[in-house]
Write the structure tokens for this entry.
Amino acid sequence: GENVEQHPSTLSVQEGDSAVIKCTYSDSASNYFPWYKQELGKGPQLIIDIRSNVGEKKDQRIAVTLNKTAKHFSLHITETQPEDSAVYFCAARAFNQAGTALIFGKGTTLSVSS
Amino acid sequence: NAGVTQTPKFQVLKTGQSMTLQCAQDMNHNSMYWYRQDPGMGLRLIYYSASEGTTDKGEVPNGYNVSRLNKREFSLRLESAAPSQTSVYFCASSEGQSLTNYGYTFGSGTRLTVV
């Protein structure tokens, strides 16, 4: 089945710096790669996603890149702000006979200090 | 618009007790999912239901059962709780299984402690 590895597990940056989180996946059939942000005591929320027919996608300060050949994708946050501090999860869409579901990485705790 | 509602928010069980975690969505979504979140382990898929009337195992199904009661509701049952099932449980839903309608909406979680 699908396996998603995420690095680093913790990341500390200064306000205004950039942050990069990287993920790899194992199943070449996976075709959808979302990123979720989880704030303390809340459920994860989708912040950006990318499909396998696209190499890069941007939304204001957030961008995601995908390298299908290498089976890795990355989240880039520019001009970080204290409110970006949270746990970030990458995921990949896995397939089996019954349907599809997301398999998540183990998460990255991002701390932005002012 | 409530989205995905999970009950209860907190629960303490004794080893061997049973309980059912409830999840309901009001977005007319076809697919629903149960995940557990443990420190350093991320979100692990327990069971999912691609559509009403179907369920399938995820990564960590042992010790759990599910019921897709109707299109809105998807419950998770622990028949004989064990301390290893201490975790935060999240329910999620998506409109469907195709890429055009695959975005997940998560509930706010149930924090379960088994003593």
